[in-house]
Amino acid sequence: MERAYKFRVYPTREQESLIQRTFGCCRFVFNRFLAIREERYKEGGETVNYVACSRELTLLKSELIWLREPDKCALQNALKDLDTAFQNFFRGVKTGQNVGYPTFKSKRDRHRSYRTNGSIHVEEKAVRLPKLGLVKCRISKKVEGRILSATVSQKPSGKYYVSLCCTDIEIEQLPKTGSVIGVDVGIKDLITTSEGQKYDSARYIRDNEHKLAHLQRELSRKTKDSKRWEKCRLKVARLQERIAGQRSDALHKLTTELVRSYDTICIEDLNAKGMIRNHRLAKSIADASFGELRRQLEYKASWYGKSISVIDRFYPSSQLCSVCGEKNPATKDLNVREWICSNCGTMHDRDTNAAVNILNEGLRLLA
Question: What is the rounded CA–CA span in Å between residue 128 and residue 54?
């Protein structure tokens, strides 16, 4: 099994300078060969693959001496990423999926990274990377398995991280509990379980939007690319990173608790991209992060030997009575939080009833 370990690194000034030059070289190689592939296809319909690009990169290094300075694996991986982007685009055209055409990378993009798979070693308080040597690192967890690659990245806040992709890892399976649960995802309560338990939705954006708006207003009044503008930009980036970290931490704690407590978790396939088009609810939906919640549940269940049952997004979980199955179209209105079944007279809480229906449908699909 593969697993990634992400740690913060503290490079020296010389190492930071080399990292920035590597970012620039990878961006140059990606953009250069993207332009070459487009030009040759327009001229004669020729398709340039990764092998041909790799040969031309070798010749290009003899002309541009500064391309020899960064890690050679990072430049080769930039070409592989470009080739993968084209393959995904053409595959999406054939299958009807909406996969975007590869675009040029901007030097003003604050999310920067490069991937290397050279000689990588983890030591007590440092990690050894190609060309950089020993880089001070905050090792917060023991790295297991065999290291395949390392991705060095920089966030808009200026912090540097390294992500180590490892394989041949044996993850200890969690003990079976024999319990199953249905989960209804919402805005007011992040999730409501079929047992009636509700987890409040922590509104991190709304809790910090006043401070964020104040900092963004200050940023808009500064001269772009000036020293004061850069200081204010860092303040905005750090606050946004803090909001993202709070949300990620809360989701990890919640999903880990669910996976530890239940053997089977039934959830619904929400169309988050379509839901976010509702401008009245867009901020709350983005803050809740439905897609990340499902992603964490799926990979943690796979790790620890649990199962996930995903029901169809068009299943009317909120409209059906969980006791007799009577359908109540009036519950399409989100303002209806409680209702009484006209057939059996059962009093329903909207979210709890939906979670019970999700559980029943999920178990039916598994059976």
Answer: 26
pLDDT above 90: percentage of residues in the chain: 69
Distance in angstroms (rounded) separating the CA atoms of residues 233 and 245: 18
**Domain assignments of the chain as residue spans, ordered by start:** 3-167, 176-205+234-367
Per CATH, the number for 176-205+234-367 is: 3.30.420
At 251-260, the pLDDT tens digits run 999 999 999 9
Query: Which pair of structure tokens corresponds to residue 35?
Result: 């332009």
pLDDT tens column, 315-336: 988 889 988 888 888 888 888 8
Active site residue 351: yes
Q: What is the mean pLDDT of residues 134-144?
A: 93
Which pLDDT score, from 0 to 100, does residue 47 have?
Answer: 85
- Catalytic (active site) residue 170: no
**294 vs 243: CA distance, rounded Å:** 19
pTM of the model as a whole: 0.88
d(CA 116, CA 121): 12
Side chain identity at 16, as an amino acid letter?
Answer: E
Question: What residues contact residue 307 under an 8 Å CB cut-off, 6+ apart?
Answer: 263, 264, 265, 301, 366
**For position 165, what pLDDT does the model report?**
95
Residues 6+ apart with CB under 8 A from 365: 309, 311
Catalytic residue among 71, 83, 263, 268: 268
Structure tokens, 321? 């009575």
| Residue 268: active-site member | yes
Identify whether the C-beta of residue 301 lies closer than 8 Å to the C-beta of residue 260.
Answer: no
Which one of the listed residues 184, 263, 287, 361 is annotated catalytic? 184
